[in-house]
Write a structure and sequence with these properties.
alpha/beta
């Protein structure tokens, strides 16, 4: 397989889509990795497997409609395998295994049959366990790589901090000819409305030169201004705190003029259609209860 990912919006040809089959029981509070899941566990509204399977199949049908080759993880019994973006990423023709939470190491093994199709010299894994990064924090934009991180003193105690500066440095080392820019993100284990779990929870390019952004997702106003200057304020769709909570920036592009979006994102979907972008609406509100949405559950392998 010849991998090719230069950005988030070129025409998609092949993708890994996670699975909700045999997702396991509702986790205990102490087993949850994010404040939104905890909120729903406490409220008794944590998503049911049957609903999440149906939501993911709706996405699979959209991919089928557009002739995209879809790979699914091998099923691990009673195990959450929805968020394929966390475990690996592709930049250019390079497959990079993430250094993720130790409890989730099994997930990468479930797509080993995909990795086996990649030229071995193009598969990388960070050489040290203290190098942390996840795919949701890494956004490829042609000759730029945008990376979400967290520079708080409590990084080691902050379970929602997923990518550290050693992770940023590692990605820089692999792509010395690209401009790598890190962004210090807001984190909270108490309130999911104040928690940008990954960069794609508060920012994502879409279309030809547009992007979705949540200003308050960035700890530094300078980081936010960098993106305003880069894209132009007129090309940014600003989402509010509630829209970030419901994951409005976490849609997924099949091409510059086709996106998959949650059917409840009325304001965003109207904006996209006004840009002459086709919006394929799917139900994904149950999966969103785990603080992840469409980009989180997909890992692109090949784009034009």
């Amino acid at each position: 397989m010849k991998l090719n990912i230069k950005n988030e919006t070129s025409r998609l040809r092949a993708v890994v889509l996670g699975t909700a089959i045999s997702n396991g029981p509702t986790p205990k509070i102490e087993e949850a990795y994010d404040p939104k899941s905890i909120q729903h566990i406490k409220a008794g509204t944590y998503p049911k497997e049957v609903d999440m399977v149906a939501e993911m199949e709706a996405v699979a049908k959209v991919f089928e409609k557009y002739g995209v080759k879809v790979y699914r993880p091998e099923i691990i019994e009673n195990y959450n395998q929805i968020f394929a973006r966390d475990i690996a990423l592709v930049i250019d023709d390079t497959f990079i295994k993430s250094n993720i939470l130790p409890d989730r190491e099994k997930e990468i093994k479930a797509i080993q049959y995909v990795i086996d199709q990649v030229e071995p010299g193009k598969v990388y894994k960070a050489p040290s366990e203290d190098i942390h990064f996840e795919g949701g924090d890494i956004i490829i934009h042609n000759d730029h790589i945008f990376i979400g991180t967290y520079n708080g003193d409590d990084y080691s105690d902050c379970i929602v901090a997923r990518t550290n500066m050693k992770g940023v440095a590692y990605i820089k080392s692999l792509f010395p000819n690209k401009t790598v820019k890190e962004f210090d993100l807001q984190k909270s284990m108490e309130d999911p409305r104040d928690n940008a779990l990954h960069l794609d929870c508060c920012f994502q390019p879409v279309g030809k030169n547009k992007a979705i952004i949540h200003k308050e997702g960035f700890r530094s106003i300078e980081d936010y201004k960098y993106l305003v200057d880069f894209f132009g304020n007129e090309n940014l769709f600003h989402i509010n705190r509630d829209e970030m909570y419901y994951m409005n920036s976490n849609i997924f592009s099949i091409s510059e003029d086709v996106v998959i979006s949650e059917k409840g994102f009325t304001r965003l979907n109207d904006w996209l259609r006004n840009l002459n972008i086709t919006v394929e609406e799917v139900p994904y509100a149950e999966i969103a209860k785990q603080e992840g949405l469409l980009r989180c559950s997909t890992m692109p392998l090949i784009r034009d």
